[in-house]
């Protein structure tokens, strides 16, 4: 039962990262439902999750895609008679009927392990699966209060609209109200593409692609190494592979050195991070002056709403931020988080939604 709970909790986290309303209360309802079902029946697991984890029809397509990916390609399909069959796509592209065969939670345990594995140690096939899961991520954004007002049922009295209505109708028939509008908070992502980050750079850029596709108007992405290069436009392509090919043609300093202080100074000179969530993805191997990096990080912290540093090595027990870059940046960070696995990226996506 503990394995089942861990599997389904991981599935719920995957759904939340994809934008499905699979909150903790819905996950608890799923576990209660599974107590009364045969968990070795993939169709029963599929429908239990669909009925408890989805908030409405809009969630169903995302739920189906996540279920197919998480449970190793198994999907449930409804027949004309209303019965449910579960099929599995084989490597040859054929479909095999899956009835009372393998248990869905059992097959999902391998997917759950894959979510937590370091992407630098995956096989090509495993990395492709992780990248496919990342492509389905729909990163929400924390909301900020706008200076603009919008009509509301509750809030401050909107005197102008109330007076206009009264002039039209000859009397004050209704008090109009207004409140501040909300807007998604801007996110700036700086991705280190230097040699020491080579095992993680592609996965980080695929995560960046998912963020840009989710909120293109408020997401800005830059590559950092020996030069600062904005790559937001390239990442707006719908297909992740096409987007990364465009990025590879645009970025001139793949697998080079790292001069974080100089590039952060350049970014602050030509742009602003005021009110934004700034995410720096790097291992902190600074070849430039660490004091310069500390100075620029202090400037950045004064402007930004939050500064989050994503370090792939943070996911390992016993990690200590001992590199010069990390020591210089650490006093100015709001959070230092891991960035080595699919689960770490899903957690980062949730942080951006609730920062």
Give descriptors for this structure.
single chain, 355 residues, alpha/beta, Rossmann fold, 3 domains, six-stranded mixed β-sheet, three-stranded antiparallel β-sheet, globular
Q: What is the domain total for the residues?
A: 3
The CATH C-level class name of the largest domain: Alpha Beta
Distance between the termini: 33 Å
The low-pLDDT segments are 73-107
What proportion of the residues is helical, as a percent range? 40-55%
Gross geometry:
globular
How big a fraction of the residues is strand? 15-25%
Q: What is the CATH homology-level superfamily of the largest domain?
A: von Willebrand factor, type A domain
User: Can you give the mean pLDDT?
Assistant: 83
- CATH fold-type name of the largest domain: Rossmann fold
Please state how the strands of the largest beta sheet are arranged side by side.
Answer: 9-8-7-10-11-12
The count of DSSP E runs of length 2 or more, i.e. the number of strands, is: 12
Give the class from helix and strand content and strand pairing: alpha/beta
Number of helices: 13
Gyration radius (Cα, Å) is 24 Å
What's the CATH architecture name of the largest domain? 3-Layer(aba) Sandwich
Please trace the helix and strand order, writing H or E for each element: HHHHEEEHHEEHEEHEEHHEHEHEH
For the report, how would you describe the main beta sheet? Answer: 6 strands, mixed
């Amino acid at each position: 039962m503990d394995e089942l709970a861990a599997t389904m909790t991981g599935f719920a986290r995957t759904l939340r990262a994809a934008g499905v309303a699979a909150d903790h209360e819905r996950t608890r309802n799923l576990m209660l439902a599974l107590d009364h079902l045969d968990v070795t029946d993939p169709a029963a697991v599929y429908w239990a999750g669909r009925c408890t984890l989805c908030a409405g029809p809009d969630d169903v397509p995302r739920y189906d895609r996540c279920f197919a990916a998480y449970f190793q390609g198994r999907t449930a399909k409804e027949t004309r008679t209303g019965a449910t069959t579960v099929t599995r796509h084989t490597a040859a592209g054929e479909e095999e009927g899956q009835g009372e065969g393998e248990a869905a939670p059992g097959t999902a345990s391998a997917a759950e392990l894959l979510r937590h594995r370091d992407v630098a140690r995956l096989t090509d096939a495993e990395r492709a699966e992780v990248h496919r899961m990342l492509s389905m991520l729909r990163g929400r954004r924390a909301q900020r209060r706008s200076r603009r007002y919008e009509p509301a049922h509750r809030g401050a009295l909107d005197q102008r609209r109330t007076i206009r209505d009264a002039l039209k109708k000859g009397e004050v028939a209704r008090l109009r109200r207004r409140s501040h509008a909300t807007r998604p908070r801007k996110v700036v992502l700086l991705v280190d593409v230097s040699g020491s980050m080579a095992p993680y750079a592609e996965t980080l850029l695929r995560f960046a692609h998912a963020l840009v596709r989710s909120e293109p108007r408020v997401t800005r992405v830059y590559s950092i190494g020996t030069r600062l290069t904005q790559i937001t436009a390239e990442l707006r392509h719908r297909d992740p592979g096409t987007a990364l090919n465009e990025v590879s043609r645009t970025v001139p300093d793949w697998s080079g050195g790292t001069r974080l202080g100089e590039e952060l100074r350049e970014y602050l000179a030509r742009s602003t991070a005021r009110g934004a969530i700034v995410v720096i993805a790097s291992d902190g191997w600074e070849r430039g002056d660490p004091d310069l990096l500390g100075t620029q990080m202090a400037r950045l912290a004064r402007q930004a709403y939050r500064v989050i540093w994503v370090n792939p090595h943070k996911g390992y027990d016993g990690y200590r931020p001992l590199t010069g870059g990390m020591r210089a940046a650490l006093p100015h960070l709001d959070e230092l988080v891991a960035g080595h696995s699919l689960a770490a990226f899903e957690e980062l996506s949730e942080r951006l939604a609730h920062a």
